[in-house]
Amino acid sequence: MTTVRYRPTWDLALDPLVSCKLCLGEFPLEQMTSITQCQCVFCTLCLKQYVELLIKEGLETAISCPDSACPKRGHLLENEIECMVATEMMQRYRKLQFEREVLLDPCRTWCPSSACQAVCQLKETEVALPQLVQCAVCNLEFCSSCRADWHPGTPCPPQDPNLPIAAFLPGETSAFYKTEDEDGPIKRCPKCKVYIERDEGCAQMMCKNCKHAFCWYCLESLDDDFLLIHYDKGPCRNKLGHSRASVIWHRTQVVGIFAGFGLLLLVASPFLLLATPFVLCCKCKCSKEDDDPLPT
Length: 296
What we know:
Helix content is about 30%, strand content about 10%. By secondary structure, it is of the alpha+beta class. It folds into three domains: about 90 residues, Herpes Virus-1; about 80 residues, no CATH class; about 50 residues, no CATH class. The relative contact order is 0.05. Belongs to the RBR family. RNF144 subfamily.
């Protein structure tokens, strides 16, 4: 539990306390940390715990500012992270970043051998075509497209484009995913193409990278489907993963929020119309007084 330190009022003028957006506590400036990219300020303890939690969970993207309303959408730099976490945690962070770089690099791929899992280089001029890849560590020859044994003159077997065959560096629990099941554990975000793993929960997904909401089964966008009508019909009918009562309660809350705002606007509109002339008159009067010459 974070301890908030209070000091006598005569010290505040010399060294004011700063509020942390995460724990809402107030601390002296030396106990706060500012993110370089966005200048958002948090207490060092909260920011450290936030960074460590993301690294332990296996972050998919760069570590963003913990303020969801951050206007600049800043990210923590590597040297900032290094100052907060232990050496072992920093090594894991660099490992995760390296895995992500390889995953998104069309000229690099992982050796499909579970006993090797080295990084293999592809020919840049033929990166869009299936090509022979030979692992420099274990000498395994495989196809760059389907990652099966090299099959010259034979087309690659059909695969689900949403499900990658993802390899990780030694020590990770995940190895390879290759399935035609629409409810497979890993798919790409339909907007930014970042890999997303779903362990459990409902079918309404939101990408951590681009904040795009979509259906896990058919990848259709849910950004504007606040009432989740998508799961009332079609192939994804009743596949949301929540009970009917839960869905109805969700819709009631959403409708209630919009109705509340509409009612508030309706009630306030006459008062705003009545108050407008008075506001304009006061503004004109103030402007006129400002234009009057100063008394001599």
